[in-house]
Amino acid sequence: MQTKMTSARLPPLNEFIATVFQRSQLPPCVCLVSLIYLQRLKMSLPRHARGDVDTPYRLFLAAVLTASKFMSETGTCLTSQMITEMTDHVYTPKDVNLMERSFLGLIKYELFVNVQGIKDYLAMHGKILEMDLIEDVLDA
Fold first, then answer.
1. Model pTM?
2. Could you give the domains of the chain?
3. Whole-angstrom Cα distance, residue 109 to residue 37?
């Protein structure tokens, strides 16, 4: 029941992603790591796995929240309440907490991303993302 009500309030996924990234003002590295987490999830799921209409939205939010928390050095990471506000209260903080816990379980808490993982991801998707790898920054 909640999924039907929620999905009726959601914009197209590409607009949703753009809005969240704009409102969060996350650094590109957090955005990139969240995409790497989503790729890990995709690789580990069975091919026939299906979810609800809003599953892509939930997975995206969980990936962004997880990457933000993992990469935060100064306590400036996203919170469940911030996600709730960025999504115009489509999801409650309780929903977001559940998304995050479920997502962590699905990716088996594999959060570390090494330089080679970033290079591999950008080699596959860098043109689409319009991102280039600056070797000097990664080697520093």
1. 0.82
2. 2-109 (1.10.472.10)
3. 10
